[in-house]
Amino acid sequence: MQLARVIGTVVATVKTPGLQGVKLLVIQPLDRHQRPVGGQLVAADAVHMAGPGELVYFVAAREAAQAMPDPFVPVDHAIVGIVDAVSLLPGDEPVRDEG
Amino acid sequence: MKLGRVAGTVVSTINAPAFDGRTLLLCDLLDPAGKPAGGYLIAIDTVGAGPGETVLILDEGTSARQVLGAPGAPIRTVIVGIVDAVIVDAVTTEKPGTPRAITGTAATKEPHPKEPRRRRDGGTRSDADHG
Questions:
Q1: Span B123-129, mean pLDDT?
Q2: Contact partners, residue A39, CB within 8 Å, separation at least 6
Q3: Is residue B125 packed enough to be buried (19+ CB in 10 Å), middle (13-18) or exposed (0-12)?
Q4: Is 0.90 exceeded by the ipTM?
Q5: Does an H or E element contain B82, and which?
Q6: Residue A3 C-alpha from the chain's centroid
Q7: Which of A5, A46, B78, B131 could form a disulfide with A67 if both were Cys (CB 3.0 to 4.6 A apart)?
Q8: Rounded Cα–Cα distance for residues A37 and A28 (Å)
Q9: Is B85 in a helix, a strand, or coil?
Q10: What was the pLDDT predicted at B100?
Q11: Is the pTM of this model over 0.90?
């Protein structure tokens, strides 16, 4: 699992049947100091409460589909939690919330 | 499995039900020499690891769910061990802060602090309590 920032939503009316009712969000993966790292992704929202600007953690690969009500859906990234706080060891670079 | 060092904790109250009551630790990935290998993972702790410790990370879903006893959970990354030492080509990388092995007889000379002490009149503390 990795940290990510939700930066947008995806609206699609024509979808494969398994994806009906699944909320899709655009996320930017972050490093542990919450700086953007890598490309942006579309992830399914498995907590039903994530929205743009929020700091979340997501799971990739087969486990992403396991997070959905129907585990046999074509999903490869899923948001599985909203982050309240990341606390690093003393002396580590401070985390600055840029959202 | 991968080597990592616990760099911090992640706190979350709104999460998928499978994560309720689980501890999430943010782990930097390490190479066998103990240097950062780049990247990190958020893993579920199963062994009681703490910040700064070198840990063994399992990053494969089916095994992770088996370790947790949670079939069907959207979980892929778990901490399954705390590393004491890594030996590569006969070079040992010790976990920082590992206490040195006790050598010699120094450890056995001191009396155990909880050992009951004899009183001068020959009785013990428990005799006095009942008297």
A1: 51
A2: A29
A3: exposed
A4: no
A5: strand B77-82
A6: 8
A7: A46
A8: 7
A9: strand
A10: 44
A11: no
